[in-house]
């Protein structure tokens, strides 16, 4: 992967419903190429599917069964080639947020949050939630719609939430960044304008490799020339990790040498006629923001309606053309079917025995540990069987094999001795019963019973038994 210095472009926007402005958003992405796109008021529900090409997206939808239609919600989209991981949103009471951690090389992780503070939230307690997000990392960037008005950031007036936010920023030594004018771009049809932030950090950022062409024949030849030598001997985990790193670098080098930039043949997402309507709308919007004349607002609303109708017609015609072009012979029909049957799913967090794996490295370690446990031999030892084997190995090698008639003969002589009052044959008791004792554990004869039979050696004192 090629790496070079580049500034980081973050754009945030209150969309006021993102589904109905998807085509317009695509056109905005092509023209301005943001690295991260933070959306507020997405108005999405859990069953809604929404994605942007070449972006990974995370969102938090507002779930309120008392509302008849979707409202609120936040989302954050990050380009595929950027190293990052999703951060679970902490429990929040007064604001909505979607959060990721940007993990750039040679730089501490940067927590980036898409923030939306509802108008009806408590204007004095919402900073508690902001402080909770600040605890997620040392470097935190929170962009979004705070509904906090203050002339400090070029608003026409102050409100309670704006005063609270300013006081909180002063106490916690936070920097509030706001544009010098109400708008930077006036190209989207929401009531809010998008804001672009550019950070010129001194760091290296991976290049997007999605627009390159790779000659795989040349790639194979280059990789074969590198690994023509015999395979190395691996006798330790350190050597294994070292060889894996070497092989990974060889793969990246081979791909870089066998690739070249692809021709940029992107087609505009919007029709030229719609672009003209957008230009007219931008002028009307700028005029209304300057004059605040109700007539200018009426003209702007009329243009908005015309743009919505034009986008709807354009979307329907484009979908109709796509369906008409589907063919069974070239496989396009089955590819389209697969897109609907198998929607793209991101790898979620992995729950370990001790903690939750969020970062890619932690996930890899957890999967490796799980595989190691799966391929470890099970402990199938039986304590009783081990006890028997230990007793068997403890038998003296001079002992004769145990024969069942030893038990019968011992019982016969013992019975006669108890009956007649004669002395027990000591030699028989010592020799023959020792065979029984030494082999009891093998044939599951309990020791307490055995001890009762061999308690006395010699002549019995009387016949009171």
Molecular structure report:
The structure is a single chain. By secondary structure, the protein is an alpha+beta fold. The chain has 13 helices and 15 strands. It has a five-stranded mixed sheet, with no helix packed on it. The longest helix has 31 residues, at 294-324. It starts with a strand and ends in a 12-residue tail after the last helix.
| Low-pLDDT windows of residues | 183-187, 426-432, 443-460
Count the DSSP helices. 13
Chain oligomer state: single chain
- Helix-strand pattern, N to C? EEHEEEEEEHEHEEEHHEHHHEEHHHHH
Helix content: 40-55%
Strands of the largest sheet, in order across it?
Answer: 4-5-3-2-10
Q: Biggest sheet: strands, sense, closure?
A: 5 strands, mixed
Overall residue-averaged pLDDT value: 77
How many angstroms separate the termini? Answer: 95 Å
Gross morphology is extended
The helix-and-strand class reads alpha+beta
How much beta, percentage-wise? 15-25%
Calculate Rg over CA atoms: 39 Å
Q: What's the number of extended β-strand segments?
A: 15
